[in-house]
Amino acid sequence: MTGPARPADPARNRVIAVSVLAGVLIVVAAAVAATAYVSNETPSAPARAAATSPSGSSAPAPASSSATSASTVPAPSIPGTDALGFLGTQARCADGDSARMMVLTAASQAVVCDRGGALYYAGWRIDTGTGTRIEGVLPAGPGWVARAPDATINITPAGLVISAANGEFTEPATGFWAAP
User: Fold this and answer.
1) Can you give the CATH number for the domain in which 155 is found?
2) Is residue 44 situated within a structural domain?
3) What number is the average pLDDT over the span 138-145?
4) In the prediction, which pLDDT does 79 show?
5) Number of domain units in the chain
6) Where is the stretch described as Disordered (predicted)?
7) Torsion of CA 153, 69, 87, 147, to 10 degrees
């Protein structure tokens, strides 16, 4: 037989409430920290990555701890480029935007552009003569990732990795430049 139910201990209820509150605060703090970490993951890593000079030799790109204006950004080191991207193709930033990273492969030209803090990808397939632009590029490790409905493009100092329904294709970089 069971006896009458005892009323809940108020001290125990307080301990449970404080524990739940502490757990919620830890989860919120972790989410805020993760968001801050991802949003601060900007071109500091790509800026320190190796840049290929026109002669083909690699040299470290200068890193900068302060923001630089477009007028002080060094000229891209990839032949056939200017401050906006690749000359004569759609792998270029729009006038007024700035290039953050350029990658040249045997089959592609790729530029990550900055329009007032919003990043976009401008690419050109050398073999087919077709261009594409993808809005909403996000930082990812030492580079960026561009997601389109039919493919995902990872843009890094090592080259391009294109993931699509028909497979994953890697294009090693033959030229690379990143803004400081």
Assistant:
1) 2.40.128
2) no
3) 93
4) 94
5) 1
6) 43-74
7) 10
Q: What is the pLDDT of residue 62?
A: 34
Is residue 75 one of the residues assigned to a domain? no
- Amino acid code (one letter) for 132: T
pLDDT bracket for residue 108 (50, 70, 90): very high
Number of other residues whose CB lies within 10 A of the CB of residue 162: 19
Query: What does pTM read for this prediction?
Result: 0.60
DSSP H helices, 42-153, are 44-48
Q: What is the pLDDT of residues 25-52, one digit of tens each?
A: 454 444 433 443 334 443 333 333 333 3
With a cut of 70, say whether residue 114 has pLDDT above it: yes
| Domain annotation covers residue 87 | yes
Give the rounded distance of the alpha carbon of 74 from its chain centre.
21
DSSP-assigned beta bridge partners for residue 98: 114
In terms of residue numbers, what domain contains 130?
81-176
Contact 132, 119 (CB under 8 A): no
CA–CA dist 155, 146 (Å, integer): 8
The Cα–Cα gap between 102 and 178 comes to 6
Going by C-alpha positions, the residue among 27, 39, 35, 26 that lies closest to residue 139 is 39
Give phi and psi for 79, each to the nearest 5: -60, 145
Burial class from Cβ neighbours inside 10 Å (0-12, 13-18, 19+) for residue 48 reads middle
